[in-house]
Structures
1.
Amino acid sequence: WEKLNTGPWQDVHKDWRRVYAFGCLLKATCLCDEPGNAPAVAEALRVCDMGLLMGAAIHGDVLLKVAAVLQAHLRSGKRPGAAQEQPSTKKARNTGVSVPDVASERPVPRLRCPSLQQFRKQFLAPGRPVILEGVVDQWPCMTKWSLEYLQEIAGCRTVPVEVGSRYTDEDWSQTLMTVNEFISKYLRDESSDVGYLAQHQLFDQIPELKRDISIPDYCCLGDGEEDQITINAWFGPRGTVSPLHQDPQQNFLVQVIGRKYIRLYSPQESEALYPHETHLLHNTSQVDVENPDLERFPRFAEAPFLSCVLSPGEVLFIPVRYWHYVRALDLSFSVSFWWS
Amino acid sequence: MAEERRGSWFGFGFCGFGQALGSGRGRQVHSPEPLATPGPGADVCRVSASWSYTAVVTRGGQLQLSGAAGGAAGGCRDAWASEALLLVLRAGPAVGPGPELQAWAPDSALRGEPLWTHTLVPEAGQEDAAGGKPQARALPLLPGARAYVSPRPPFYRPLAPELRARRLELGGEHALLLDEAGQVFSWGQGRHGQLGHGTLEATPEPRLLEALQGLPMAEVAAGGWHSVCVSETGDIYVWGWNESGQLALPARSLAEDGKTVAREAGRPHEGDSNMRRTVGSEDGAPAPFIAIQPFPALLDLPQGAEAAQASCGSRHTAVVTRTGELYTWGWGKYGQLGHQDTTSLDRPRRVEYFVDKRLRVRAVSCGLWNTYVYAVEKQESGQPQPRV
């Protein structure tokens, strides 16, 4: 564990991560000594998840298999819960939501199922954002996913959660909890704290959920292999904010549940966006997009941008290094695909 | 060295590799036990512990290793243990070339040839005359203070001459230097705030800790990801990572586990108002939990005890007070705090063993997951002892 915390994460030697994964495997095995002891089995599953989150693949992804077995075991012991609140009823409570006046802003263009050539020529090559419609209509997640379903499939699994309004805040932190705990603490009640299951490769950890999504066809226009595409889950309540930042890869942001307000600034405008100078945050702007301090950041007011409200079933193409700001208008689940 | 009653060394914490700790039984020792090696009557003056082995040097110049690395050698003045290599300072002949620095692979058992050696320029009377502080200018700082040794290449690292180094400590990913004027410098990785400059940026060269300017320091100690220093007036300053409570600041993980014994009912403890920040702090209201403290914070010991010396392990901290008590806090999973259990603490707690045995603690030296303590029997007359 200490080796995993030494140096930058990408520099941690894979062997230490493998050792950690083995440690988790052994510990989980010991905890499963008494199958009837539900808390011990739940702890064993948590330990498997720690190995999956921080360790590296060992023995043909044995931790995934163990986790699946433990999950099934725990699920069979559970009695069916009371009727859970559906996300749709949450939308009715619109008090306090500040929906931006998108109509007065320059919109991101929309296209319905463009051909590969059209997409490459008009958007990928010149690096222009676009919203693709009709592309993910057949994905199972569009009809299957709900809070109830996610709790059933992944409720006992341990996931990383970001606590705090945005990652540039002083009191922002990351913690681990089960999906059940996350949903009950941050999604069901209007919690005073914002919790966000953000930028997590949930589908590597829980292969069952991976079956509900696919890979956008347009990714084949890239140079990399399909297994190099990073798929992240973004699951959180209304009000989560990702501060204006840029990423080093192309991005397809697939909206599954809820709506998100998104603003996009071209990389050419970088200077007017005042990126942080520190190494840690050099890809993040210092400006609060919806409440900019124009005295400190005067050029921001003039920087042109595109914006949209991304709704379920829509896919936003964010070109590489295109600055983007995201705020969830509803309880939201998005899936992002980082590809090159 | 001033005339004084000879004391003895004790150890507690992790000894999974059979390193000299207590009787060497078992993998953990939760309460202080007298060191069994190198043998009764051995006058040990230096203990340097790495994760898997411990090096012990006697006043007679005997070096003995125990744990994953074994072996012994004579003619040694100082030793410094790390997983990558063992540094040994061999005394030079009275006339001629000066002391020799040797770097050994720990598993060589001190047989054969060292990995490399470096002969140092002899300096007149530079070791014992250090004002009664035999551990001053200890490894990895080299005699003469012109350079220090790192367990990672480049091994020999010169120090700028204007840095008149008195003491140098290496942490997991950073380094602390105390100069003759009592100023503290830090450099290395800063991701956990261990450099104390108020940011998380790395600093390649020694940089003065401005927050401590004007407060002359007497001791520094570096842990895995945290730093501690003791002022000449006995105050303690801490900064860096606090995930196990190693800074004695409120730690979230301890509260959530419910395992901390810090908040003992009925005890008139000072509470969080204890934790005053030094000049230069930007913080407003104190946060409930502190994961990273990026600049020095003043730490008070119970009953206003004054600190004399500090040492840091990987994620725990130990402090000796002027009245000869030992306080420990931080990660305690292997009993390295010496409180007869394996709870971690985010508050300083006195090690009662030494009080109960009427022993006066004089020095502490932490390994990564264990703690070694030097103590003498209490004098009847109660006159103050000279500081080690």
2.
Amino acid sequence: MVTALSGDQPPVVMSHKDLNFIHVRQGGLYWVASTKTDASPFTIIEFLNRLAALTKDYCGSLCEKSVRMNFALIYELLDEMVDYGYIQTTSTDILKNFIQTEAVTSKPFSLFDLSNVGLFGAETQQSKVAPSAAATRPIMSHRSEQGGKNEIFVDVVERISVVIGSNGVLMKADVEGEIRVKCYLPTCSEMRIGLNEEFSIGKSQLRGYGMAVRVDECSFHQAVKLDEFDTYRILKVCPSQGEQTLMQYQLSDELPCAPPFRLFPTVEKDYGNRLLIFLKLRCDLPPKSTALNVSVTVPVPKSSLSLSQELSSPDQTADLQLKNKAILWSIPRFPGGAQLSALFKVEVPGLSSASLLEVGPVSMSFELPKHTCTGLQIRFLRLSPTHPGLSQRWVRYVTHSDSYTIRI
Amino acid sequence: MGHDDLKEMLDSNKDSLKLEAMKRIVAMIARGKNASDLFPAVVKNVACKNIEVKKLVYVYLVRYAEEQQDLALLSISTFQRGLKDPNQLIRASALRVLSSIRVTIIVPIMMLAIKEAASDMSPYVRKTAAHAIPKLYSLDPEQKDQLIEVIEKLLADKTTLVAGSVVMAFEEVCPERIDLIHKNYRKLCNLLIDVEEWGQVVIINMLTRYARTQFLNPNINEGGEKAFYGSDDEDDDDEEKKAEAAALAKRKPYVMDPDHRLLLRNTKPLLQSRNAAVVMAVAQLYFHLAPKAEVGVIAKALVRLMRSHSEVQYVVLQNVATMTIKRRGMFEPYLKSFYIRSTDPTQIKILKLEVLTNLANETNISTILREFQTYIKSMDKDFVAATIQAIGRCATNIGEVRDTCLNGLVQLLSNRDELVVAESVVVIKKLLQMQPEQHSDIIKHMAKLTDNIQVPMARASILWLIGEYCEHVPKIAPDVLRKMAKSFTNEEDIVKLQILNLAAKLYLTNSKQTKLLTQYVLNLAKYDQNYDIRDRARFIRQLIVPTDKSGALSKYAKKLFLALKPAPVLESPFKDRDHFQLGSLSHLLNAKAGGYQELPDWPESAPDPSVRNVEVKDSVRAGGTVTLRGRAPGGQACGVFLSSDQSSGEEQKRNRKVVKERRSGSESESEEESESESSESESESEEESESDTDIKKKKKTIAPSSSVRMYELLHRITGEGLAVEYCFSRQPFSPDPHMVAVQIQFTNNTSSETKSLHIEDPKLQSGMRIKEFPEIGQDFLLPAGESVNVVMGIDFCDSTQAANFQLCTHTRKFFVSIQPPVGELMVPAFLTENEFKKEQGQLMGMNEISEKLNLGEKCQSDHAIVERVTAKANLSRVPCGSEKENRFAGKTVSSGSLVLVTVARKEGGGAQLTVNCEKMVIGTMLVKDILQALTQ
């Protein structure tokens, strides 16, 4: 039936006779809805996304194991959310009045978990920033645990996409960011989040004297109160339990600082059938910052056979992926201001000058913890009135690469 | 196989064992295992006290009731009992499960239950009733007429909670009964923004259809809308347009119906919604209903959606692709947003390409082509092929760049990647067909490619080109045929067919050189394995080789083979998709999905707009009301309790506006009509003022949740004709959540006007704060006999101290004070039973106050206790396992301290009242108040 699956990207909507299947992919799981009638596909996709988010909120993490352990809970959730195919509610606040079953969490014990799992599940060495295990706890579990901590996480997550031309000119740059809150406070008091005072929206507006933090567009979650936003750049919100996105913003076409990576490539034809690719990669982040999990993909001619490489340090790796016809160079850790170089010799039978054209464009992926490309910072995070009992507040920043392309 | 262990656990007395068993059974269902043999053991537990067990039993029951009808009937009585429960949640859940049991015998029971629930006091139960309607309909379509009655009743409901659900039921059961909507149209438009998001989607889609039947096409005077944006098929409908224009000249100028405008105005803010489904619903509404000049607003919102998950992007792009064909101009400013990223999945890339191609015009084509050039380098082959096709389409649509594109494509022919070359050949073939004379060198170049290129489709295309334009390459063509004859047997079928075609065409034009070659090829084809090729050979031979038997047709062979062929139209696969309603599943599939409702065409002349007029009754007088509309934090939970006067007040305003607009805007209408309308509205307002006071009384008695006690602030005698009353509306005060909302009603009993009502000189205890109502303006006059409502906020600092201040009019000042009853200093808090117990455990000792009491005669039942306690204090109920206890929870407004109240009934009318609160003063006073309420 699922013959339409082509490669790794099945079509979002599939139909078989009168039955239509709509799916989304989250947490490595397929969330599929089926419908016979003409329901709005947006509603279904949006609902599946919410369902995935709620499952994550209730079960702690989103993976096959947690779903398998919590069938009863998920059934109960679905039962409250959908009535005979009609969506009743997806609001955490309402649902928590109904849901009775408690989540079973899997707590695999391994040394790896203790030391090395970092922000957003990625493997980092910066994991001391925040207790990551806490952030993947089900929101409802504190009900039974007497010593449940009152914690609140505020994450500033940015995704950067950049295109750098072959002459080194920045051709396109976009940043999409969002402020996410994950809240474990049992009763919700008001929270105030102060952003940089010189934060400005749009091209005309300028605030403060120093470097303005500028974005093009900004949208807010409906629960955010903005009465102090115009003057003091303070977001006020009463967060409900679970995860929600308070603010989304975009910046297009211009970056306040240099793009994080610069590449200086040289591609040459060796005598014989060898292609020499010499790459110099510079990280333009401030010296205190570090990029993690950097990987560089260099497409090579179709007929490439083998690769020999010279890399500057042993923790880096590079290999030729014959399936994609590309060299994958990975650098686990790349401090700001540093420069790395690599020499790749590729064996290409029948090498001609036309083959040189098949090299590039280079694409990169990376993660920049504790760094935002727009410069957005959280000045303060206050809960008012001060919450009784210890409430712990965490602020985390991270920038991911969305698509980082350097043309050769 | 038996599940004896599970059965044993279900039969045990311990809830924990039952729960464990139910969890295992649900897990079995989830894995797709059959658990139906456990039905008798499970159904016994339907009346289990433990709510966790109970809910899982419900899940099981709904799944298997259809298979075990007889046994399922045993559970029905439990639900019937549940339908009468004082707790709204239990009533709703009983109805939900009862209506999900698909057993035809209980249809009459379900019908009765739905009817009763439809007039339930609680909007939550009414909402559940609306959900139950389509379930019953699918079980027994015979019930349609009765169900429509229920739908009609629920459509009139004024709460936002019900609106979405009943429209869903309407769409399912009787979408053709558009007449049911007339009277509710304006109300639905006005409620829309407060309805929960899933309901919004359904309502907007329904209203789109409604508007298409009731209003005139706003673009009617613009002529064919395509002309403006310059689309490719202008020529086709020129004549139509002329006819249309002639018709237009006779038509009177278009005036938009105010109701049409209302819909557009009220949906626009929803473009900001965080729910993609809502944004898309509004976008399609604007696309289908708005005047051309206003449609542009949706572009930005849709572009914003493209930053969402890739699945959402996919569906948005499908819709954008359709829109760009009709209204290209609207997305042009966002061209860059459709540029492709290396991380996009292929299907998104291809859709973006589609949009970019649709957006291409003379001004931006050079940018777009440059962008396309970089895409050709991509590693994703499907995408490269699609890019080449896109270049071809740009070239056909925009004459100026045809040569540039062609040259670019010819360069691609030297690409090392065969797929790229093949795709280019196919596209070049299509382009050349449009103007072959000028491009014989390109054809020559392509002829050379036959030696290298192996992709069958590309080889076939080249052969076709050479055959078709053999006059342009008279020397090369026979040579190509020679080579092809050599390799004929090894070619793919499509290539063989084109070799035959090439041979036939050459035979007709250049028989001297190619006669023998053609014979040879035809002979090879005669013995081919494929019957298509054998057929083709036989057919060609009869046509072109003259024999004595050959008929009259051979004379026309040249005309048949070398007729001028029309150039192919390279058009978007999204062309004409817009006959499906955008945003629908059918549009996405480009095929009608089950239950798709066609979007009707605009009517020729407008149906009577007066059908939407509503007689206004049963609402508090609210002319010119200054109501601060508090948006409840946390959304629907509080939305349930929003009393109806807000919406009806608004509606009334709206009605007035409509009347006004009609008066000014409908000059073209006959005067008679507008007169009758204005007199109608006058009579309405008379009726209102008469019944005004009655209604207030009625309200107090009907709904306990919305009944509010009015207190006097200023008597009309001391106020010299100005009477002021206030009440605690129990709605959150939106400017400051730590304040108690106080609704104040001014009534002018004098014979002259009162001006500039405001507050001065508040004398407050330390810490207390006042947020005044906005001064009702110097210009505002409170005419004689009228009244007005305002809302102010007071932070009482959780004390019952009075707030003193001066109330000023333009002539006088009055000293007044507002003293809150202790029960108004709190807001409901939603806790679960466990949370309640936990919190209570932390508020013992000094914080706990307990009193024994004897319940009053009328207050023995659960229902009465709940009613009295919630009337006295603004608390919410907490679910409770024990039948003898009632629990309530709230938080003080100012400091957010928890207030927990427990009423435990005992034998013989006695009871124990316990209040746990950190603030001892509040606790003590609350005990006193509740005690008094319960003993009366």
3.
Amino acid sequence: MAEQGAADLGNNNNNKPEASEGTIIKVTVKTPKDKEEIAIAEDASVTQFKEEISKRFKAKQDQLVLIFAGKILKDGDSLSQHGIKDGLTVHLVIKTAHKAADGGSTSASSSTSNQGGNSTTSSPAANPAPTTVPTGSGHTPTQTPNIMSESACVLFELKTLFLPKITSLSQRLSHAGGFGDLASLAGLGMGSANFMELQQQMQRQLMSNPEMLSQIMENPLVQNMMSNPDLMRQMIMANPQMQQLMERNPEISHMLNNPELMRQTMELARNPAMMQEMMRNQDRALSNLESIPGGYNALRRMYTDIQEPMFSAAREQFGNNPFSALGGNSDSGAQPSRTENREPLPNPWGPPNSSNPSESGGGTTGSTSTSGTTNPSVSNPLGVNPGSLGNGMFNSPGMQSLLQQISENPQLMQNMLSAPYMRSMMQSLAQNPELASQVMMNNPLFAGNPQLQEQFRSQLPIFLQQMQNPEALSVMTNPRAMQALMQIQQGLQMLQTEAPGLMPSLMTSGIPGVPTGGAVPSENPASSPSSAATNPAQQQLMQQMLQMFAGGGGSGGGNGTSQTPEVRFQTQLDQLNAMGFINREANLQALIATGGDINAAIERLLGSQPS
Amino acid sequence: MAQNNSSFPVQLYVYDLSRGMARELSSLFLGRQVDGIWHTGVVVHGKEFFFGGGGIAHCQPCGTVLGQPNSIVDLGYTEVNEDLFQEYLDSLAESEYRGDKYNLFEHNCNTFSNDVAQFLTGKTIPSYITDLPSEILSRVLASGSFAVPTPPLLLGWRLIEADMTVELSSPSS
């Protein structure tokens, strides 16, 4: 072999693969930057191989160092000697001409400065919890479980609030040089220009790594910072949502100012067993409360007054959990007590799908980021199932009430959508459809329904693009648009049950017309008096969306609408004009919102007139 | 032919970032059992190499803040000497493994360890490490909100209780 190698060196310049007989194999040659497939004879020598490589990689043969299975391939060897076969990968390092002799320990962009110094400073990257205030002062809540529960809540609230603060803090503290994932959190801050991305990633990591919290808290630096109650209070106050909450509910500020509580909270974070204990106590206390006369009502009242905003505040940070309403519908006193009774909807579960009731009820653990992907579903109550429009999940009563809740609370949607976390999450989901589909598939709501999954999967890219479209987002924050969508859906349901044969033909062209008919509860729009301008462009977009989705998602969403609202409502507009409502714009909006129902539109117009 | 092929042992140091808490709490927060949040570094030529937010870095073995590894996986031997390895790392640091290429889930320390291990020895690192991000990502995003509503809920109840106590004790309200 050796002679052959030596002989080949001089003789075999052309290095045709057939120079030595043998089959040709394709070997992948991989450099740190590049990858190429090279065809070479099975029994070729390393030298021959290097010749090929040098041509392909435009480097001199003696700059090439080949490594396979941990061994450096010497010129005299043959490929088969090392077991290099078809389809395998050989690593290549191209030595630079001025080969830095002392290795690159200086030239490596990899920092060697990581040793020692950065370790403690970068660990507070992720987030902390309240402090260990040594001296408890002020009022101590009467029962221990209460302390614990308060602690837990404060813990989490503060955690969400502190994340941005700590992030910036860690950025200032840490320097280049990460070591592993822990410090990479800090490094992330340096590396990525996008602060929001950092926050998002940190939150993600935090959620997957609860122990990190305890670790962080034990860090002396963090403890020092945390032990300053003023600083903490300041940070808390700085969060606008907390401020809002505190204005409305002074008890919260009391609680936050209670150092005893803080200490408890921190201990709680350390000790998951304690946390579980506390949760159990909480449940017990709750059931006790219910039995006290008048207690239940008080409970409900407090819930609506306090929990809702708290929920929203927390949710905004983490992205919304729109499905919390689904499972907890019986508990959300908000719904029945604040809004008018909605008419029951027609049977949402068409014949094909009897398994859905379980799904819709089980949605409590709906995801945070699938809220990003389920956003389309929330705002698109069509349910987008080309197969059967009445299909379960989206038409469930829970979903309906959720939609109503959202339409009444435009702020919620607004906040949720505009949370930078949400945006970047959606962006990353959009860029990585596989990820998004994976995420969605794991959403418990979809779990039981492979058919739904398939549909969603196919429409996913379009969904995501839609989400990116700021117009689409603004449509979703428009409560009347939401209501209109709901009405459309209801109309479609009706149609499906009443005239199943009609549906296919209606799908593409008839949808804009549907809202004018169908089962439209007329008191629907009355609850939102705000006159946010629903300009025709938004309407257009909405209709496009509807058409696109109803058309099976394949049409790309750019379909022109068949009729603009103006055309559709021409008759009604004229009637309104004749009655004396001369503000055409307002008329149009009202008509759109009420789906062409003149009487309801008149009520709207009268209600929104400044008195 | 019989050249002096020096042979350097290559090891993979595996650390659990959660210090065991993932094993305890993961099913609570993620809905499924995850045994650890793995961070890895490759130890060769007497140094530990890893990839982080600041790019490729190295230190003394066990020299990170994580201390002693959870487990050490033997990856075999390599003939690649220090100089060559350093050149390789330089190339990587200019391309695939710059600091800004760090992605917590898709291009992290374990990705780096895997690539380096393959370069040095031809072997990959154990799959339970490289599979972790996709598992966690799907689980976290699917069920992460489980953890979120609970504390605000608790807060709400607490305040309810407080109010209840007040109300009951002062019936005049």
4.
Amino acid sequence: MPGLSFDNYQRNQFLTNSAGYNAPKATSTGTTIVGCKFKNGVVIAADTRATAGPIVADKNCEKLHRLAPKIWCAGAGTAADTEMVTQLISSNLELHSLSLNREPRVITSLQMLKQHLFKYQGHIGAYLIVAGVDPTGAHLFSIHAHGSTDVGYYLSLGSGSLAAMAVLERDWEPDMTKEQAMNLCAEAIQAGIWNDLGSGSNVDLCVMEVGKNAHLYRNHLTPNVREQKQRSYKFERGTTAILKQSIYNLVDVVEEPIATTGPDAMEVDS
Amino acid sequence: MDAINVDINHLKKGEVSLGTSIMAVTFKDGVILGADSRTTTGTYIANRVTDKLTQIQDKIWCCRSGSAADTQAVADIVKYHLQMYKANNNGKSPSTKIAASIFQELCYNNKDNLSAGIICAGYDEKNGGEVYTIPLGGSLHQHEYAISGSGSVFIYGYCKKNYKPNMTKDETVNFIKTSLSQAIKWDGSSGGVIRMIVLTKSGIERLLFLPDEYVNA
């Protein structure tokens, strides 16, 4: 059944107001995400920390989503919303592409996403950077939860967007090479990782170049590897004393070879 | 009845706002639309190079102010209606008045759920350049020139003094440039670059003015 379900509304109201239970906090991808155009394509990048309030819920989550083989999207905001809205539009985009017998276009995914998000008036908390290559060229867009879209050569979204934008504003230049753009995006995400509490862990990257397949660099940088623990915390065998051991045979095990030839052979399609 | 007391200006929390200074001016050969390029979320500038001048038809454009999401959605719907009009009328282009009328219908009937201030301007052979303004409540007003957005309040006096009917293109460009320069100067929600669209018989021309050029205009 598609759509938002309000079946538990009354129960939840009771629990929070009368029974003293606290509502679970929606996991937010605290997040730093960026996108950057270069000479022959576009690259997007993201950090990998997912937070539930002040707690890190996932130290290595995937914020780069595939809308189509050559159209990828980075998501900030409510983690569930970015994941679901991305999957929905990805599905519809594939059907649309098959129906038209054409490669999917970035502007198509943009229009589908914005019309969906606008319809829900911002209640679906998805803030996305959409990028890709299609027969029309390379494109880079951003979408906000209320349904507004922006175009740009370089963009950043999420709680770490200000830190990332500072890096982009300083170092972006037109007609960069693929490597320059990848480095710029990695640096911008790192600015978020180090300076924003809602962002951390690793850098994921995705390069979409005109005329080539898209390339996902999962954990392109891992500058936050936990140091080797000082000692092993494994308990040695015997730490818990065995007081009694009983073995019960629940079944009788009989070995019977399966005949593949002869009159008793198993019937199979030849 | 709630209607009179409701603050219709209010954007929802976190919604992107086209703070804005926008205007459209008719002149001898047609009409010119102008806008700043700043969109804000609270105090952060979400986009410093926004294009608030949106094409609805070949020579019918609009200036958007208010909620970015609302104005983009409304503009897309008007664009769709005009495409259908053209298809169902044997390729005949709709007039600027028709476009403005569709804007009005959407903005008025959905006034409780929209935060959109739009200036619709266009050129056609028969009527020349025309400017229609559709403020928050969804009323429709035709003028020789119109200003709107949070920055417009600072330039009502300046525009009234300096507007002349039937100016040349250069005079009009200069009028818009100096007006928006002042609006940007005094309004924190406006800034960036000044974009203009010139609509005349000869065609559509896009103009761009960077801060160095307009700040002392």
